[in-house]
Amino acid sequence: MKDTACVDFLQWALPKLHLRWPGFRKVRGQVCKRVGRRLRALGLDDGAAYRAYLGAHPAEWEVLDAMCRITISRFYRDRGVFDRLRATLLPEQARRARERGETALRCWSAGCASGEEAYTLKILWLQDLQSRFPHLGLPITATDAGGPMLERARRGCYPKGSLKELPEAWIDAAFSSSDNEYCIRAAYRKGIDWREQDIRRTTPEGPFDLILCRNLVFTYFDAPLQRACLARMTDGLRPHGLLLLGKHETLPEDTAGFTLVDAHHRIYEKIRV
Ligand SMILES: C[S@@+](CC[C@H](N)C(=O)[O-])C[C@H]1O[C@@H](n2cnc3c(N)ncnc32)[C@H](O)[C@@H]1O
User: Fold this and answer.
1) Spatial contact of 231 and 263, defined as CB atoms under 8 Å apart
2) Which of 216, 218, 220, 243 gets mutated to test ligand 1 (max ligand atoms within 8 A of its CB)?
C-alpha cells in the first residue's frame, strides 16, 4: 500500500478505534506494512476495498486494532528518566515505604512491549538501590495487549542493539550472552509478573508506588480514552505515588490531582489523597 493511501486510510480508521492520527504520523510505517500484508492476505486491492470489507465484516475491526499497536522499545529508553528515578525519586519512595512498614515498592509497567522497560527498572534497582534498602523488594506487574510481545518478554533474550544505551557494567552483570543474543539472568527475572491485558479494559490491582505508562495511552489514544485510562491508573496509584509518561507525552489539560515533579522527564506525583 502506498504511503499516501495508507495515510488516508489511517486518518479515516484510527478515530473509529479511539486512536489519534498525530500519534501515528511518524511511526505509521509499522502499521502500513501490516495493513498492506492484510490486504494481500484478503485479496483486496486498496484502502477503499478494505473500508468496504470492514463495513461488511465488523469482526475485522479487532484485527485492525491489533495491527495498530506500535511495539518499539529498548532498554534504558530516555535514560534521563531512569537516572532521575535512581538518583532521587526511587530512594524517596523507598524511604516512604519503609516508614509505612512496607516490604515492597510496587511498580506497574503498562504497555511493557518485550519487557525492556520492566527489566531496566529491575536492573537499576538491583545494581544501585537494593543494597541501600535491603528489606525492600521491587515487584513489577508488566502488562501488554500483545501476546507475542509477552512471550518475548518472558524469554528475556535480545539482540545487542536493544541494549545499546545500557552501561557495559550493567550488561555484564545482568545478561549472559551467546549466539549474538543477550539473555537476562535469573536474578533479574524474579518478581516480574507478566500479564496479557488491554489497558482499555483491564487494570492490574494496586496500589502501586510507581506506574510507567510511556509511549502508549498519551500518544496513541484519543482524549476520552486517555481520560478513562488515567482515571483507572489514578485509582491504582498510592498517594504520592509516581506516574511516568513518555518524553513527548503530557496528561490531558484539565487533569487534577497530580503535580509535575520533573517537567523535562514527564514525571508526575499523585497529590490528591
Ligand atoms: C511503543 S510501545 C512502548 C513500550 C514501552 N512502554 C516504552 O516506552 O519503551 C507500546 C506498547 O503498548 C502495547 N499496547 C498497545 N495497545 C495496547 C493496549 N490497548 N493495552 C495494552 N498494551 C497495549 C503495544 O503492544 C506495545 O508493546
Assistant:
1) no
2) 216
Contact (Cβ atoms closer than 8 angstroms) between residue 49 and residue 9: no
In angstroms, what is the span from residue 188 Cα to ligand 1's centroid? Answer: 21
Q: Residue 236 carries which DSSP code?
A: T
Among 69, 211, 212, residue to substitute to test ligand 1 (most atoms within 8 Å of Cβ) = 69
> Distance from the CA of 147 to the center of ligand 1, in angstroms?
11
* Cell numbers placing 261: 515533579
Contacts of residue 28, Cβ cutoff 8 Å, sequence gap at least 6: 3, 6, 7, 10
Q: Decide: 246 in ligand 1 pocket, CB within 6 A.
A: yes
Question: What pLDDT, on the 0 to 100 scale, is given for residue 273?
Answer: 55
Residue 130 scores a pLDDT above 70: yes
Q: What is the pLDDT of residues 207-252, one digit of tens each?
A: 999 999 999 999 999 999 999 999 999 999 999 999 999 999 999 9
Cα of 146 to ligand 1 centre, how many Å? 8
